């Protein structure tokens, strides 16, 4: 805790103090979070728990990055909740896509990858006057945060692009006591907020805090607006009062019938203010993590001395990135080479690299997970359950990164250091630190191509932005947002008569009708069709005409482009128009098969947790009529014996014919805390939920369709288990008639195996395994004998080769073709020939199937004059390839087998050129 610029720890008035603690009570970060939520509960707001960092049903976002994300559909009018005021502390990540703070973290006072956004929201309830009054009371009242009002500044929208100056906000700030000289007017860039190109938008007011001249980045007293380090934005109040649409003449702003409020205040920033420090990293949200990072890396920085800034930044980075990684993995994100997993991997590896800069080359980052849990487990109790699993994921990534770095060092040579593009490939592919490569180039006397590196980096970032699947997507088309909700009756009926066509969509655009043969989407006011959700695919079936006899359209599936609106994917058999009346008829056979697999998924989830451990959590699923697929968190393959036990447990539940009980409209707190229901990964839950309970065996939050009892499943057969990614496994299974088909196939295979292996006392599968194992052992023996023959022949062919070596400026050079041997054998031959030469260069080449292999060996006494990598590089170019390696041994491949002999004849000339 940095209490004052003089370095003392006193929380009292002193000549150098940044904050007068007599006028403002010190609060811990946890207390600030709780006080904020408690204050707004007292103002009639519902306390809402943070949503996942993985945005639910929003492909436009890489990560949740603001408090309003989970309320987006509420603001758009696509979702209704049983409260009109809410307050939350939302976990956020900004480390990829449009909002990317990654490279700044650790080197500034206020940039973070992970942070918490405190916010209060009004959905058509109160507006500007109350929002401003609430904010001012919380910040300045001595009963709450007690901030000195003279340190606060406010901004309003000055008017721009056809929107008038926000005179209302100006007046309300005056009414709460803000002097006119501390209310500033800014343009649309700073004080006008929009959800997107279209949709809700409006002016905003920002509240700034004056940290004092001590915080100035210029070291002098400058007015508001001229010193970003001194005047810190702590709260943004967004006044949603317009709906923006695009017309032929340009954007059109229409006043909303029910204006709303969305505010955001960074917990880390307000903690910095209330704890009287200059940097967020000096608050108690970070200091325990930084201390733990010091312990784990063995590198302690003296807090009272302005020294070792680079080490201080590294510790901040480790602390920040540990928070981000812990929460991301806890929310289901895993390290990968694309999308969210790629960003997580970069965050983790950046933290690991800074640990290495501090001298710690052993895995340490996984231990930071427990420090994050200890500091934030009260506010986020899910961390207590997930920490062990998260730590294992981080440890696996640390170990993999260590192996990758080792490979990267082998790839680093003079050529890669001279080329910025090649250096960036090492940076991106192997995680080779940039400063490491810059230092290596300097030590070798090579100019590092920083411009080329930055160009390659920018190109990769552009490619990554383009490859992000959701990056170019927009919110649902307006045609869906303006529609009434579809009444779903499919839980109790497979047929709904007299449904009215609300809209028809073709190629994303609303149309008045679909003609026979056309593909499109039909939105109805009621339906029996289940829409894609929770891993269960939508129903298939038919839409019948009003006379109940002819099929109007064939339905291949259904989705929910907007919450509550069902879009049926159809091929029209005859013309169907908006306003028509149709009957929705679900394919019963398909639906029942899907229900068997979905209920089977719940049983499988519970059985996996029983056999493998409570760390097992769903990481994805797919349920359709033919099969079920279940992804879950686990770190090793599931043994055959474990799979059999899981299958036995699941089918035991099937045979028990336990009733499948569905409870609707259950408050989520009761569902999770009292009923013990498990939430499924990637799903979005409201305040009231649907619970599916199977006896005392399984209880989950689920909106899918299910069998009435487990006996209806018939039988479940596991058909596959494998890895999806690091720390995630996948089990596939079939049920009902699918299981019957699987058993029939198994019986047919057993019969064929019996014919193949003959009569035996063991099971056919074991007999076949034994026979295959014996054949494989025989093949290994034959391969070893063949390799020995090849090696003997190759050794004989080069036995006298040493005598044919040529003298090049006093260096013996031997070039020989050795077809028919493997690369490992070529390496042995190189060692033999170097031994016979005593001192010299050996070049061996081989061709097979149109491909060329080259190996160059240089005796140790010559590597200062001739490097194997440079020799093999020039020869490889002659055979259409490239390669590299150590100064004493290097390898290359090529694609022009016809050029091999010519390349070998030029080996002596290449060595001569290097000696010159």
From TrEMBL:
Its cofactor is Zn(2+). Residues 765-792 form a coiled coil. Binds 1 zinc ion per subunit. It comes from Edaphobacter aggregans. This is Alanine--tRNA ligase. PANTHER family: ALANINE--TRNA LIGASE, CYTOPLASMIC, ALANYL-TRNA SYNTHETASE. Its main location: cytoplasm. Pfam families: DHHA1 (PF02272), tRNA-synt_2c (PF01411), tRNA_SAD (PF07973). It is found in: Cytoplasm. It comes from the Bacteria. Keywords: Aminoacyl-tRNA synthetase, ATP-binding, Coiled coil, Cytoplasm, Ligase, Metal-binding, Nucleotide-binding, Protein biosynthesis, RNA-binding, tRNA-binding, Zinc.
């Amino acid at each position: 805790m940095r209490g004052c610029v003089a370095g003392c720890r006193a929380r009292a008035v002193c000549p150098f103090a940044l904050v007068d603690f007599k006028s403002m009570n010190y609060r811990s970060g946890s207390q600030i979070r709780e006080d904020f939520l408690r204050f707004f509960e007292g103002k009639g707001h519902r306390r809402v728990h943070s949503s996942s960092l993985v945005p639910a049903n929003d492909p436009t976002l890489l990560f949740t990055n603001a408090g309003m994300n989970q309320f987006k559909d509420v603001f758009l009018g696509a979702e209704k909740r049983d409260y009109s005021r809410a307050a939350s502390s939302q976990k956020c990540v900004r480390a990829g896509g449009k909002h990317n703070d990654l490279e700044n973290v650790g080197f500034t006072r206020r940039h973070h990858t992970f942070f918490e956004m405190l916010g209060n929201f009004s959905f058509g309830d109160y507006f500007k006057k109350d929002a401003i009054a609430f904010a001012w009371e919380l910040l300045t009242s001595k009963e709450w945060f007690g901030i000195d009002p003279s340190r606060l500044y406010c901004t309003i929208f000055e008017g721009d692009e056809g929107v008038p100056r926000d005179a209302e906000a100006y007046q309300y700030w005056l009414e709460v006591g803000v002097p006119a000289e501390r209310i500033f007017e800014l343009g649309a860039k700073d004080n006008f907020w929009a959800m997107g190109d279209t949709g809700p938008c409006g002016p905003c007011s920002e509240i700034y805090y004056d940290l004092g001249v001590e915080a100035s980045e210029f070291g002098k007293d400058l007015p508001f607006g001229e010193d970003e380090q001194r005047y810190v934005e702590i709260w943004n109040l967004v006044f949603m009062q317009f709906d923006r649409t695009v017309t032929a003449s340009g954007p059109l702003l229409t006043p909303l019938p029910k204006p709303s409020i969305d505010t955001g205040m960074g917990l880390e920033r307000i903690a910095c203010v209330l704890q009287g420090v200059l940097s967020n990293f000096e608050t108690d949200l970070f200091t325990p993590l930084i201390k733990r990072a010091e312990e784990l890396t063995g590198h302690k920085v003296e807090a009272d001395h302005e020294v070792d800034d680079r080490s201080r930044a590294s510790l901040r980075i480790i602390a920040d990135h540990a928070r981000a990684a812990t929460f991301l993995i806890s929310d289901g994100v895993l390290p990968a080479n694309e999308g969210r997993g790629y960003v997580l991997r970069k965050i983790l590896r950046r933290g690991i690299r800074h640990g290495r800069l501090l001298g710690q080359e052993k895995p340490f980052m996984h231990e930071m997970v427990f420090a994050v849990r200890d500091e934030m487990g009260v506010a986020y109790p899910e961390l207590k359950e997930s920490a062990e699993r998260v730590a294992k994921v981080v440890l696996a990534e640390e170990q993999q990164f260590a192996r990758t770095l080792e490979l990267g060092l082998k790839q680093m040579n003079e050529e890669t250091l001279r080329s910025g593009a090649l250096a960036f490939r090492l940076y991106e592919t192997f995680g080779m630190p940039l400063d490491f490569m810059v230092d290596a180039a300097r030590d070798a006397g090579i100019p590092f191509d920083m411009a080329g590196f930055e160009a390659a980096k920018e190109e990769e970032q552009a490619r990554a932005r383009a490859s992000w699947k959701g990056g170019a997507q927009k919110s649902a088309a307006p045609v869906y947002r303006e529609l009434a909700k579809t009444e779903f009756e499919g839980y109790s009926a497979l047929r709904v008569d007299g449904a009215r066509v609300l809209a028809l969509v073709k190629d994303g655009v609303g149309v008045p009708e679909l003609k026979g043969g056309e593909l499109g989407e039909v939105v109805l006011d009621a339906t029996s069709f289940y829409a894609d959700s929770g891993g269960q695919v939508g129903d298939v079936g038919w839409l019948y005409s009003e006379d109940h006899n002819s099929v109007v359209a064939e339905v291949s599936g259904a989705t929910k482009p907007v919450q509550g609106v069902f879009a049926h994917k159809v091929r029209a058999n005859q013309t169907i128009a908006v306003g028509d009346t149709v009957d929705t008829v679900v394919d019963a056979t398909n639906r029942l098969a899907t229900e068997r697999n979905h209920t089977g998924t719940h049983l499988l989830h519970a059985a996996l947790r029983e056999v493998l451990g409570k760390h097992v959590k769903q990481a994805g699923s797919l349920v359709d009529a033919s099969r079920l697929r279940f992804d879950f968190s686990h770190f090793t393959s599931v043994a055959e014996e474990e799979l059999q036990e899981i299958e036995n447990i699941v089918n035991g539940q099937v045979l028990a014919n336990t009733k499948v009980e569905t409870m609707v409209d259950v408050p989520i707190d009761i569902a999770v805390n009292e009923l013990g229901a498990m939430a499924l990964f990637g799903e979005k839950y409201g305040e009231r939920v649907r619970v599916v309970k199977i006896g005392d065996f399984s209880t989950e939050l689920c909106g899918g369709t299910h069998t009435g009892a487990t006996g209806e499943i018939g039988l479940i057969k596991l058909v596959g288990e494998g890895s999806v990614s690091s720390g995630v496994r996948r089990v596939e299974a079939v049920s009902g008639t699918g299981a019957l088909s699987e058993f029939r196939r198994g019986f047919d295979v057993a019969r064929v195996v019996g014919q193949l292996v003959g009569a035996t006392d063991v099971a056919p599968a074991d007999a076949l395994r034994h026979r295959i194992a014996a054949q494989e052992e025989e093949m290994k023996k034959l391969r070893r004998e063949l390799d020995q023959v090849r090696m003997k022949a190759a050794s004989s062919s080069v036995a006298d080769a040493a005598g044919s070596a040529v003298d090049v400026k006093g260096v013996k050079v031997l070039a020989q073709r050795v077809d028919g041997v493997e690369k490992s054998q070529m390496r042995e031959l190189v060692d033999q020939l170097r031994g016979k030469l005593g001192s010299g260069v050996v070049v061996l080449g081989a061709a097979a199937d149109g491909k060329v292999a080259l190996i160059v060996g240089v005796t140790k006494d010559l590597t200062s004059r001739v490097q194997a990598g440079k020799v093999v590089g020039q020869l490889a170019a002659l055979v259409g390839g490239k390669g590299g390696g150590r100064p004493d041994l290097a390898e290359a491949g090529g694609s022009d087998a016809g050029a091999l002999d010519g390349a070998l004849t030029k080996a002596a000339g290449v060595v001569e050129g290097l000696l010159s």
